[in-house]
Amino acid sequence: MAGFGHGTRRYPRSSGRTRSGTGPDRATLGIVGLVCAVAGFFALGIVLGPAAIVCGRLAMGRGWSGSRPTPALVAVVLGAIDTLLAIIWLAGVATPGL
Q: Helix, strand or coil for residue 15?
């Protein structure tokens, strides 16, 4: 007896293989990171660059190897370039003029 009318064959999903319904999925995070990276080239690069890196990294999952979504990888690379350019631009503005 599996338990008062609730058989085990009715719900075949194991608890370790299902994801929680809360939070955005990896594809959405990759696209959000890609949008942040592209928008960061035009405005607020010092904020949107690191945001793109974080979203892209979260979208790639645990490891760097294996199959990873292309938008997530592009978001990480463009976010790093965007952040680097923003830091260089801020360092150029901060230098005293001659």
A: coil
Q: Which token pair is 4?
A: 């008062």
- pLDDT (tens place) for every residue of the chain, 98 residues total: 555 655 555 555 555 555 555 667 888 888 999 999 999 999 888 999 999 999 999 988 876 666 667 888 999 999 999 999 999 998 888 777 65
What does DSSP assign to residue 18? P
**Which pTM value belongs to this model?**
0.70
> Among 84, 33, 37, 85, which residue's Cα sits nearest to residue 55?
33
24 CB-near residues (< 8 Å, 6+ apart): 32
